[in-house]
Design goal:
The protein is mainly alpha-helical. Helices cover 83% and strands 0% of the residues. It is built from 2 helices and no strands.
């Protein structure tokens, strides 16, 4: 599964960028008092962060202790 892990690692990197971008737009929306948009974008940011965390566990599984 090395090639699949490399591909998934690339997806994790893309998710990191999306999380950053969505978070920045959410912050801007909150600053502009566009609360409905900010709320939805923060929810999207949380969902993306969860997806990133789950993919991260696939790409870098925890080491097993003997």
């Amino acid at each position: 599964m090395p090639s699949a892990r490399a591909e998934l690692s690339s997806v994790v990197t893309a998710l990191d960028e999306l999380i950053r971008r969505v978070g920045a737009i959410a912050d801007e929306s909150a600053s502009a008092h566009d609360d409905d948009t900010a709320t939805e974008l923060f929810a999207v940011e949380r969902a993306l962060t969860g997806a990133r965390r789950r993919l991260g566990r696939v790409v870098t599984p925890p080491t097993r202790r003997a």
